[in-house]
Specification:
By secondary structure, the chain is an alpha+beta fold. Helix content is about 55%, strand content about 20%.
């Protein structure tokens, strides 16, 4: 409060006022004191002259008469009168016994009187114990100075009068001071009111109320300052609106980017993390901001890269493999961020290349598997051809057996190529399939009849518990291939006189179809991988059965393209059940 401009102005004015009042009061008090002192001396001088003439005219012969004359005169004029000879001895005094009075030779007023001039002095009198003013004149007899006459008056009355005057002056000063303080405060309020309004407005603007404006302008420089603040607020509002717009756009871009963004300062501490980075690294911005990026990535090779980015301004790229919490492959690009041509921060762009790596791995595996699957029959064909060329062609039995093997391997190659082409076709046209309502009972019946000869050869029982017909969403050829592949798979791995059963259960929105067999079963460790391309539980047995290793993969892709799902349950030695779902087209008829 007391540091405000209002109080500073008031204190300044008050100080100037008090300084002026003190100076004027001192001068006035001094003038009054001099005035009263001069008046007293002038009056006392007049009385001294009268007393001088009276004593010189009536000067008696002896000291006793002179003393009595002085006492009478002092009583008459009510003033203390003292007559002193040239030696300083008191010859008469109106108030005291002359015998008790000391020599006045050293009194300054007496010494001046002996010089023939008026002597004036003021001092404390030990005789009367008061401050006195003295006026002395020479006494002459026939033009010869024979002594001096001195009149004196007490200063008590003058001091009393001066005290009363000083008291009045003090009261007047106090009253004037109070009035001045009130007027100063009022004047300071008038002067500072525009400044206070200016301060309030500036605070509101600084606190973010950029719509606030100063309405009532003052005159002069303060009014110009108020207008300048209004103009500044308008420009600031425009700038902040522009910044907020850019910030919103930047935030929208950052939050919807598929790549992760991490911004870090020169110490390597993180200052910004977008949502993509949070998801990629399984972190939260709240817990991460302020920490070192190494605590997030835990890759020491990045430290050297970061140093080069922040010190040399280089743009660097690196692939990082993270294993926690899940396996993740990241393509990381580090780049500097400049502020006024100085590197202040760095930005890290993280791109998830895990899927790309996995696809590349799958592609490599697929190429390797295809090469292996093609090499085996080709090697067999080549071997038998070379054997025939070496002379076995002349042996009818051997020739027929070798040609049969070559034909079998050629058929196997043909089936493998057909399955590869079919799988590629399914993957390429998965989103372009023309799905239609298909009669499930009709398709199951066709599949059973088509495989009847094969099941009869192994004395297998292939039955269906399907009684009601269901319309499911699929393609006819695709769904028939699913049934044929799964049924052929069951036939291949079921012992003679075994049983294969097709079961259909209706669900609220779909149909659950199960194909169970009493075959050799699948080990639990192999179940998660049976739908992978070229994966075989028993490679030798699979080739003997004529499998290509792509049948279940084709089935899985077809079911998924129909909007369904497929899985398998199995117990080694007891059999396997393949289950898949298909969406219902409408209620069964």
């Amino acid at each position: 409060m007391f540091k405000s401009i209002r109080w500073k102005i008031t204190v300044t004015y008050f100080s100037l006022f008090m300084f002026t009042i003190i100076i004027l009061s001192s001068i006035l008090a001094n003038v009054l004191e001099n005035y009263f002192s001069d008046s007293l001396i002038a009056n006392l001088t007049t009385e001294t002259i009268i007393a001088q003439q009276f004593i010189q005219t009536n000067y008696p012969e002896n000291i006793a008469e002179l003393d009595q004359l002085v006492k009478n005169l002092g009583t008459a004029i009510n003033t203390k009168i003292t007559v002193i000879d040239v030696s300083g001895k008191v010859l008469g005094d109106s108030d005291e016994e002359i015998a008790l009075m000391e020599n006045h030779r050293q009194r300054p007023e007496f010494m001046d009187a002996l010089e023939g001039r008026r002597g004036v002095a003021s001092r404390y009198s030990n005789t009367v114990n008061e401050y006195m003013t003295y006026v002395a004149l020479p006494l002459r007899a026939e033009e010869e100075i024979i002594g001096a006459i001195r009149l004196s008056l007490s200063l008590a009355q003058i001091n009393k009068t001066l005290g009363e005057i000083n008291t009045m002056l003090l009261v007047a000063v106090l009253v004037a001071t109070m009035i001045f303080i009130i007027l100063s405060l009022r004047l300071a309020t008038i002067i500072t009111a525009p400044l206070e309004q200016l301060t309030r407005s500036a605070k509101k603007i600084s606190y973010g109320d950029l719509k606030h404006r100063i309405i009532n302008y003052s005159q002069g420089e303060i009014g110009e300052l108020q207008q300048a603040i209004n103009f500044m607020a308008e420009k600031q509002q425009e700038k902040i609106a522009e910044i907020n717009d850019k910030k919103s756009k930047l935030e929208a871009v950052l939050e919807h980017m598929t790549s992760g963004i991490i911004v870090f300062n020169q110490q390597g501490n993180i200052s910004l993390v977008n949502q993509a980075a949070e998801k990629l690294l399984n972190i939260t911005a709240v817990k991460t901001v302020g920490k070192s990026y190494l605590a997030v990535l835990r890759n020491q090779d990045m430290a050297a890269d970061l140093g080069k980015v922040l010190t040399q301004g280089k743009v660097l790229a690196r692939q990082v493999h993270l294993e926690q919490p899940t396996e993740l492959f990241l393509q990381i690009v580090l780049a500097p961020v400049y502020h006024h041509r100085e590197i202040k921060e760095g930005v890290m762009v993280l791109t998830d290349i895990t899927t790309i790596n996995q696809l590349e791995k799958l592609r490599s595996q697929f190429v390797a598997n295809v090469s292996h699957e093609l090499r085996t029959p080709l090697t067999s064909i080549k071997g038998f051809v070379e054997t025939l060329q070496s002379g076995a062609v002349t042996q009818p039995e051997t020739r027929e057996r070798f040609l049969g093997i070559i034909a079998s391997e050629t058929e196997r190659l043909s089936r493998l190529i057909d399955d590869i082409l079919e799988l590629s076709k399914i993957e390429a046209n998965k989103s372009k399939l023309d799905l239609l309502p298909i009669s499930l009972r009709e398709l199951v019946t066709e599949s059973i009849h088509q495989l009847a000869e094969t099941t009869d050869k192994k004395s297998l029982t292939l039955i269906s518990t399907l009684k009601d017909d269901f319309q499911v969403i699929a393609t006819r050829d695709g769904l028939k291939q699913v049934f044929l592949n799964l049924l052929q798979n069951a036939i291949n791995y079921t012992h003679e006189e075994g049983k294969i059963e097709i079961t259909v259960r209706e669900q609220p929105t779909h149909v659950l179809i199960s194909i169970s067999d009493t075959g050799i079963g699948i080990p639990a460790a192999d179940l998660p991988r049976i739908f992978e391309r070229f994966y075989r539980v028993d490679k030798a047995r699979s080739r003997e059965a004529g499998g290509t290793g792509l049948g279940l993969s084709i089935v899985k892709h077809l079911i998924e393209s129909f909007g369904g799902s497929i899985w398998a349950d199995s117990k080694p030695g007891k059999g396997t059940t393949f289950c898949f779902t298909l969406a219902k087209a409408h209620d069964n008829s």
